[in-house]
Amino acid sequence: MPNIFQANLGRGIELIRRNPQILYTVFLGAIIIASFIFISQLFLDIVVETQERFEKHRLSSMHDAFVELAQRDISDTQFLSDTISELAGRNETITSFRVIQDNGTDNIIIASLDQDEINTPDDTSEHIYQTTYIDPDSSFSFEIIRNGDRAFQVVRAIVDTDGDVIGWVSTISSLSQFDQITKENIRTAYIVLFGIVVVIIFLFIRHARIIDYTTLYKRLKEVDTMKDDFVSMASHELRSPLTVIRGYADLLKGVDGLTEKDKENIRRIDLAAQDLDGLVADILDVSRLQQGRLEFRMADVDIAERVKEISESFALTSKQKGLSFVYKPEGTIPHVHADPDRLRQVLVNIIGNAVKYTQKGEVSVKLSASGEQVTVRVSDSGIGMSEEERKNLFGKFYRIQNEETKDIKGTGLGLWITKQIVEKMNGKISVESIKGVGSHFIVTFPKIQG
Ligand code: ADP
What we know:
alpha+beta
């Protein structure tokens, strides 16, 4: 058991060490909850205090008015009793309302809400009456406990025309109803507070999940980088044995006495090694592009010269395939700012695709300059693509799968790489195509001014 506890504790400490923001969140959550409790309590205290002050003030005002009457005619006990009944009727919290007269020896109740206590000695503690001597013209309030409930007793002296104290008016107002309402309010406040705490805890748990996702995301990124590094390293390592295979295939071609069958087999080895070499080169490019490691040596390039050169090499392949190949530069073509090798890679890919995906008809390469740009338009009368098929054309590993393409080899990386390279050299690539009619690939580069 202690081992499980220790293991969990260790795991918890490790989690906090890796994600110190957890501590901050817990601290923040605790502060928010404590602040809510503190503010709610403060607010309730203020409300209770204000209501009590208001109650005392209300009773004192009533006293002040009543004492005026008692002072005018203390001997008219019937009138005083009637007024008491009327006032108490309007204030249901009042449980005792007395007029007490000091007859020299005793304090006798001369008018009261409770008719039975008239002419009996008053039981109020002497120190309450003593207090009124401090200021006979003011009411004094005391908090007392009566029949187990809190109550306010308010007293005020009655003075004669000489200013001597001749009696008192005493009222007791029960606070039980008031305390009951306060208790209910406190309960409601705590229920609301509990709800708020639950919401905060819920948000905190959600936040903890976000922390989980952040950790997961970090791990994923690490794994992704590891994968990229591995792909890049593996592709590199594959290239050396491939070069050796192709070298030996070349050597074998020169051996005397080879039969036609041998020659065909060697050609197949060479072709397969070439395909593999192309694939490895593509994968290396993808990994370099993704890691931002593909270098561009930008220079002033005579694009017309490049396009002509590449077109010439493809003209031959096209002829072998029975296609006519047209290269058409329109007017003087300005130079562009590009990496010559990468530009070659782009052109080889789109012209190569045009030849590859065309079985009959023509492939044409047009070069033109307008405004700020130089445009290379590679057109073919090949298999074409529907709108649906074109949707993800520049996606990684995307190949259109249909009857026409099923026997044509490819990796689906060429156009993705082409687009990335074109854009890295500030160019643009777009496509227009009609299924069964042909395609146009349009690549533009900003021309060099001057
Ligand atoms: P792949 O190695 O398959 O040729 P690409 O990325 O160069 O890969 O091209 C992606 C897909 O786009 C191809 O599989 C092909 O279906 C389609 N495609 C590319 N160029 C043409 C074209 N000129 N005519 C018709 N389809 C093309």
